[in-house]
Structure formats: structure tokens, C-alpha cells
Prior knowledge:
By secondary structure, the chain is an alpha/beta fold. It has helices spanning about 15-25, 55-60, 65-75, 80-90, 120-125, 125-150, 165-175, 185-190, 200-205, 210-220, 235-250, 265-280, 295-305, 315-320, 400-415, 435-445, and strands at about 30-40, 50, 95-100, 105, 110-115, 155, 180-185, 225-230, 260, 285-290, 310-315, 330-335, 340, 355-360, 365-375, 380-385, 385-390, 395, 430. Strand 6 (about 155), helix 7 and strand 7 (about 180-185) form a beta-alpha-beta unit.
Amino acid sequence: MTGLPQRVELLTDLYELTMAASYFENRMAEPATFSLFIRKYPPHRAYFVAAGLEDILEYIANFQFSEDDIAFLEGTGIFSKDFLHYLKTLRFTGKIRAIPEGEIFFGDEPILEVTAPIIEAQLLETLVINTIQVQSMIATKAARCVHAAKGHGVVDFSLRRTHGADAGLKVARSSYITGFVATSNVLAGKLYHIPIAGTMAHSYVSSFGNEIEAFRAFVRSFPKKSILLVDTYDTIEGTKKAAMVGQEMAKRGERLLGIRLDSGDMTKLSREVRKILDKAGLQGSQIFASGNFDEYKIEKAIKDGAKIDAFGVGTKMGVCADAPYLDIVYKLVQYGERSIMKLSTGKVNLPGEKQVFRKVDSQGLFMGDVIATADEIVGDGRPLLEPVMERGKLLRPHPSLEEIRKRFKESFHALDGKYKVLNKPSYYPAIPSPHLKDLQTAASS
């Protein structure tokens, strides 16, 4: 279960199929290269985090129109019988090079390039854009939240507000890649082996006759994993009752894991709550806070001296509220022997198959990227685009989520802090090579 139908071949825009039908009628079957990249940064962004590649490769490796798909297309009356017969046997036979998941990348850099007979490559456009866009968008937002938290734990609480079931799963996975410590999404925990976390709702507390009895009932059920929600009625009074329950647990040899704040002035309340817990001898009990947190609210809370140990981040991360889409495109850059570029105002792209080379200094910190042609070698730069599929077959098993998480941590650590600031960051140098500039000039003439 992913929220998507079992087959996704028809998860495309109609014009992809009409273009494919016209290619077929005109016997256009030469290899074509399409490049996926982001043209513009959203406000206050200066980097992106690559995510979604595993899903795309799985879709493409299993690409095949079903009998039901063909029957539906036939029923539209749009397509010829010869073209529909062609689609029945269509499989992806091309190659794909891509930036690995978890890697940092920048504007105009190809995230992924597909080379295949033009119909095969064209039909992937919508699915590739949709999949990479949402997961990279969320991973970038989540990375900002983790960076703002400065080592405090961050948990994904977004499921009930994400844009559908599949989005909820991808948010959990993408945020975990960038350092979230857990998710409330139980299915994501099962599918991706992500730690799951949760506390209780206000409805649980209010269903009991009084607050302290609700707390006592919950810790009886979960003596090793109890975090008590203290703001159903009055946060300070609720914390005092939670402290009493924590002391009762201590006498039984148990420990209250913590309390959760979900409303009010989190910074002020966390300081008062910390004093109450410490006075009760509950120095080891943590303060967890949720309620409209994003990177900006987290940064302010920490700057203002909040005594919060971990943050639950939901809606604003799960829908990427301040930047809910990326200007991501999938453009034809090579057809046969001809390099191709779009010349529309504001939408010019770099032609030909490409590679991105990353230069680092003696400490391993990023110095700048060079966007070059695929057959270039740029000094001591590290090539980012890796072959992941040849002749329609995966070249290697997918990396584990922990390996992807490790790659992100290393990549993010190597990025200078001036590119990570939440407001008005500096922009990282990612420039075309001289040879690519020459190719661009030739293609535009």
C-alpha cells in the first residue's frame, strides 16, 4: 500500500501520450536525453536535498501498460490500433544517471538524466517530475527544521495534514533522510523501518473524570513510554499533576519519559514546566513541544532560551507551507546527434548530456560545482551523477535508508553555514564549464 494504484503507467498527462503517438506515426525512435532540474530557488532557499530516486527506479523497472490500460486508451477514441499494439509491448530499455538520494544539489544542476528511444523517455516525464519534486521539496524543508533544532530531536507529526496517503508516507521517509528521529506514521514505520513515536490526544485526557486519573491510567498502560499531554485545561496545573504521577512512578521503580506542550507561549511555559519537573525530582523527564512548529518557530524558541528537548513538526513541514512547490522541469536536451536547448524567455536550459562536478577544499567542505558535458573531466571534482540503470535494468540494489541518511549527514556537514541560514542565504556557485557554454552558444545559433 502506497496510496498509488498498483500500476502507474497512466499516471501521466494526456499530451505525453499524444506526443508519443505522433512520434510513433512519424517513426521517430532515435535516442533522446531528457534532463531533470530545478530552475529557481523558492524564497529563502539556497540548496536542495535529493529524494525520490528509489521510487522512480522501481516504477521504471516495472513499466508496462496493462490490458486494462490499453482498453481504457482504446475507449477514448484518440489513439490508433497500431500505436496501442505498440504500447502493449513497450518496456523501458534506456539508461538513467542520477544524483543519489540524500545528496545536496543546487539550481540548474541535473538531478537525473534519462536517455532512451524518445517515446520511452517522453512517457516518463510526468511521473519523474511528480515523484522527485514532492520528495526533494519535503526533504529540503525537513533539513531546514533539523538544522534549526541544533541537535534537539525532531519528530514527524504531519500525517493527518499531508496531501493524501502516499504523500504522508513520502513525508515520513523524506524527513527521516534528513535527520528526523521518528514519525507518528505507523505504516511508514512498517514500510521503511523508521522509529515511530506518539503521545496522547486531548480527547484522551478529557474522556476521564479528571486529568490526573487520565495520566495515571496512561502510565499504567505504558510505564516505559509515557509522555503526558499537560495543556488540556491549564498547562501549569497539568504539569503539577504530571509531576505527581511521575513521583508515583519513581516509587514503583518506573520513570516518566516526559510531558508535551501543545499550545501557548512555548518558551515561557517550557521554563516554568522545567522548574516544576526538576523540583519534583524529575530531572530526567523531557519536555516535548508540538503545535505549528517549523524551522522558523524552532529557531526562535531555541534563540529565546526555551527548555524544550524535542519538537513535533507537522503541517508546515508536511505540506512545505512556505514553499509548496519546486520549479522543476524535465527537458529534452539531446535527440540523436543533435544537442537541444529551449530558448523561451526565462526558460533557457543547458543542452546535451551533462555531469556535475563538485570541488571541495582540504577540509572536505564544498567549494563550488561545475556543470559540464557528460564526457568532460573537471580537474579533481567529484562527479555527482551516477549510472543507476542500463538497458532498462537496475545496476545495483537500492541503498538502505540508513545509508541515505548517512550520505545526507555527510553532505550537509560539508556545506558552509552561509548557505543554510533560514533568511536571505548566500547562493552557492554552480556554473557551466567553458565547453558547455560553447555548446550552449552553438545550440542557440
